[in-house]
Structures are given as C-alpha cells and as structure tokens.
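[job 4471] stage=fold_predict status=RUNNING
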Amino acid sequence: MGTILADRYRLLELLGTGSMGDVWRAVDERLARLVAVKVSPLTNGSGDHPALRLHREARAAARLSHPHIVTVHDHGEAVVDGQPVAYLVMELVDGQPLHHTVADGAPPVADVLDWAEQICQGLQAAHSAGVIHRDIKPANVLLTAPHGQIKICDFRIARAAEHSRTLTATGTAIGTPTYMSPEQIRGAKDIDARSDLYSLGCVLYELLAGVPPFTGAGWSLLVQHLERQPEPVVVHRGDVPAELERLVGDLLSKRPQDRPATAVDVAERLRVVRARLQEPVYAGTAAARTITAPAPARRVVPVAPTVPAASVAPARRTSRPTAPARPDTGRGAWSAGLATGLLAAAQLALFTGLPGVAQVALAATVGGLVAVCYTLEAPEPSDRPGEVRVSAVALFTALVVAAGVLLGLLVWSPAPWWAALLGGSVTGPVLVGCSSAVRSLVEHVVRRGWLHSDLASTAGLINGCVAFFLLAAESRASLVGAVAVGAGVWLTAALAVGALLPCRRPH
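[job 4471] inference complete, writing structure tokens
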C-alpha cells in the first residue's frame, strides 16, 4: 500500500505541501524505519528550480551532524506516476514548529532561554562547517516531544559562507521578510553568520513579546528592517530581564558589526541570563509576573516548513495583533526636567550674580516647562527613512532660541540689521538639524529610546543656550568661543541627562 519511491521509500501519509513540493511520512523498507521524504518535481513551469534547491539543501545539511539539526539521510531523483521528481529523505521529527508555541500565549522566559541556547548550538555547528542558513524563523525550528529538544530544519536556501550571494536574479532577496537581516534584504555579497543571528533576534523577540519586531507586508516591512528600531521587548512583556532585552537589541542591530560575532557569544550571554533568573530573589519576583501558555497538543510534523521562503512576500502576522504602544513619558519627562533645572541653576550660580531665590525660580521654570511640554505631548519616531526627525517640543525650543539670538543681534550687536536678520534666520534650521543629530548620538551612545533621546537632546540644548547667552552677555568669550562652549555644554548635558533617564518602560 502506498507509492514506492526509488524502490526503497514507501510513501504513507502526506504531511504538508509548499513551494518546494510535498512532504510525506514514509518508511524506509531497507532499514525498516520511519522517515520524512520531501518530493519536488524536476520542473514546475515557473522558471524556478526547486529540484536544484532540494539538492543544495541535501548538500548543505549533509555537511552537518548535530543533535540540534535535522539529519538528512538520502537524496536523489526518481519517477513517480510517469513524472520525474527529486526527493530528499530526512529524519521524521515528533514535535511542532516553534511558532505554534506563540499562538496560544507567550512561553515562560526560562523556556525561551533554553530553546534559544539550543538554536545557538545548532547554528554554531552550521557556521563552523561554513553553512549560513539564511532562513531562521519559528517555522524552521522544531520542538520535539517529549523532552523539548530543538531541531533546526530546512536548509534549502542555505549557502556556503564563501558563496553567500543568492542564486536568484540580481536584486532579488530570498528569505522570509519578517525575519530577514538588513544585509540580506540589500542582497549584500558578504553575508555571514551574523545574518542568521539577526534572524535569531527576530525569533527571540517574537517568542518573548508574542509579536515579531516588525509587522506589515512587502516593501514597508523591509524598510522597517532597514531603518526602524523595534519597540523594546519590555513594552509588550514586563518580566523580561534587562540583560535579555539588551541581547535582543544587540542581535537586531542594523549593522552586522554591532551584533554578537558568533552564536557561541550569544549562547554565553543566554547562560548568564539563565543563571540570573535562578537567583532566589530574582526568581521569586519574576515568577509572579511570568506569562504562561497552555501546553499545545503534540503532533508529527514534516521537517520542512509549510510556510515557504519567498522573494519579498507578505509577512505572516500572528493571531494576536498588538497595536504599537506609545512611549511612557511621565517619569522620563520629569526626570529630564529636574536634570535640566539643576544644570541651569549651576550655570546661573557660576556666571551671574543673581540672588539664590531668583536662580532657583528661573531654573525651576525652565525645568518645569520641559517636563510639562513632554508630558502633554508624547512624540513618536517617523517611519520615513531619511527624514529629519524631531519632536514638536524640540522644534519649539529651537525656534525660541533662534528668536532670542535674533533679538540679541538686533539690540546689542553692532552688526547691521540685515546681518542680524540673516543670523537669526539660519539659527533655527541649524538647531533643528543639530537636535536630530544629538538625539541620534544619545540613542547610540547611552542606548535610550527615541523619546528619551529627544528629551535629553532638548535638555542639553536649553543648557547649551544658557551657557552661550551668559558668556555672550558677560563678554567673557568671543562670539565663536561662546558658540563653541554652548555646543560643548549641549552635547555633554544631553549625554548626561540621557544616562539618567530610565532605559525601559515601567509596568
């Protein structure tokens, strides 16, 4: 009963279908063992070459022998019902893809750490053999029953590290858009192991948050991978340790050189997080907030995913879409306001002879305005790549400063009126551009979110302007010197305020 393939493999049950053909549960009659057999026609009439990719998958997987990688037993070509086909024979895994664990709720953090460490071990084995998977995603990671062992499968678009460029048409990106690295999207020639680590970061984010780091379809999804920073994991789930959140952020860095270098490095950081979770004080606190999921039913699945890799195809959305959360502004705004007021008070005390009460009143007014303005408006980053991004509060601050410069040039400067107008006119746009640059610097140096970086930039701008006006008024420095000191105070104060702001959203 059942079709005999290559006089050896009896096809028993169809397990799934995809762009690469059908996957069958079969029995190897020569060795009397159950196997999974992927069968693909030698031609599909679309100009694609599924058989070539099937053979490439066999060659890539044949180089690997590891407990966390699905084993390939055999491959070849045969004739079924008069049609030539290519086939790939693999171990039959009793388990389920990881994306099924997210469908019913976020799994415990301890389980995610265990699975991620096993994925790292499998990836390191592949990378050490010179194989880049290029399609790491929950559907390609199997969780076996009953011991919860991880198995990485589907190497059909894997490539040797020294030949990592895709075999498809020039400019076509191969992979699953929801999990593709920026360099993979660009079709870079030098894709290496860190591309798989970016995809692992996407998988980790989804397992922890219940949603992928970026959602959407087509080009808009790819642009997010190229340009946007994802919401911190803790926005979606409050029991994620800070060390694990930082690791996910590092894995999702846009530039490969900013990510961990190897899967071994990632596994080591995961072990540190696991050890931290096992500390009695932390474990008791985290356990009370852990979001658990009911254990899903086990079933036999094919070792190849039913969700095929696609050339810039619409991404899979989870069954529980979540609207992006707006940043929490309260604590950060008042922290930035307090820091702004203290720095302004220090400068007033150093450079002026004002009474202490007046200094405190002015400083409190400046700091309070910063806090109130940011509390009333929670700015969000733009989705448009290349756009100068600055909040309305920062824009208003720059315009007020520009108006002050214009007034000062007109009233106290010996320069002609047209020079004063020109200087005041260019000050605003220059400050807006510099605000965006300082915000970006704070984001990358002290690793704060967009909103907190904007807060820090505005606080620094106010203090830089206080320094500039005080120096200019007291004639303690030339105009160029006053500008230089003001710029230095702006940058230093922005970094200092950014470092003081909370790095994650309170829950």
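[job 4471] summary: The first helix runs from residue 50 to 62.
[job 4471] exit 0
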